[in-house]
Amino acid sequence: MKISAVVVAAGRGLRAGGDQPKQWQPLAGRTSTFFALRAFARHPDIGPVVLVLHPDDLEADLAPEMPAVEVVAGGATRSASVRAGLEALEGRADLVLIHDAARPCVSRAVIDGVIAALQSAPAATPALPVVDALWRGEDGQVAGSVTRDGLYRAQTPQGFHLPDILRAHRAHPEGAADDVELARRVGLRVAITPGSEDNLKITLPDDLARADRILRDRDGY
Ligand SMILES: Nc1ccn([C@@H]2O[C@H](COP(=O)(O)OP(=O)(O)OP(=O)(O)O)[C@@H](O)[C@H]2O)c(=O)n1
Ligand SMILES: C[C@](O)(CO)[C@H](O)COP(=O)(O)O
Question: Top enzyme class of this protein (predicted)?
Fold first, then answer.
């Protein structure tokens, strides 16, 4: 089966702050987008790879050393950006892995876990079980406990059969937090595969430094 990838990099990174969006800030000598893209571009079983950029970034010489990929313009929401990438792939792949450019430390093992699950499942996502106690807070006070049983922290790449996830996006242009949620809205069952603590999403200011440490600790990063 032909496996493609969509890497979404069209957000503005408001929660992370900084003088440019988080996916373009310096990280281990490159950028988060570089490392996220490279994980898919150098995988021997994956291609084509589509990079989704903010319209303002299309003309910018943001990444002279980027892996060779196709580029399309994203939209105002993550879902709109993903859909732009999926539309560009229509008819050219069987499977698609959808990944955040803001998750630069994704490993080959996490990617391969999703691909393996897609051989028998309609959709698959890496995730980590919640291990901490969970509370609801009100006015700075602990107001109650929430069971952690059966709760997971979602990661990417989220994997699908390309026609299925295109159908889900077209049926639900209102979008959702992630593609798993849209897939479930059209009735797809989504398998959970092993995630990794290293596969963090750069979201808040300190996350860049953490990702930097993870990448520099890897051999030949
Ligand atoms: N309109 C958008 C919004 C998000 N993304 C991408 O989706 C991924 C996950 O989104 P998130 O972490 O929420 O990124 P931002 O929207 O950029 O962050 P923030 O909400 O802090 O502004 C990121 O790689 C981001 O670039 C995108 O391609 N298009
Ligand atoms: C897709 C995702 O990375 C799953 O954890 C996440 O939903 C992306 O965006 P969010 O704005 O941080 O929810």
Answer: transferase
What is the rounded distance in angstroms from the CA atom of residue 126 to the CA atom of residue 154?
Answer: 7
Nearest ligand by distance to the CA of 10? 1
CB crowding 46-70: b at 16 or more within 10 Å, else e: bbbbbbbbbeebeeeebbeebeebb
Rg of the chain on CA atoms, in Å:
17
Does 185 fall in a domain? yes
As for the ipTM of the complex, it is 0.98
Q: Which of 23, 100, 208 to mutate to test the pocket of ligand 1 (most atoms within 8 A of CB)?
A: 100
Nearest atom (ligand 2) to Cα of 100? 3
pLDDT band at 201 (very low <50, low <70, confident <90, very high): very high
User: For ligand 2, what atom is nearest to the CA of residue 156?
Assistant: 3
Flag whether 212 is in a domain. Answer: yes
In a domain, 221, yes or no: no
Domain of 200? 3-216
154 within ligand 2 shell (Cβ under 6 A): yes
Q: Encode pLDDT of 143-178 as tens digits.
A: 999 999 999 999 999 999 999 999 999 999 999 999
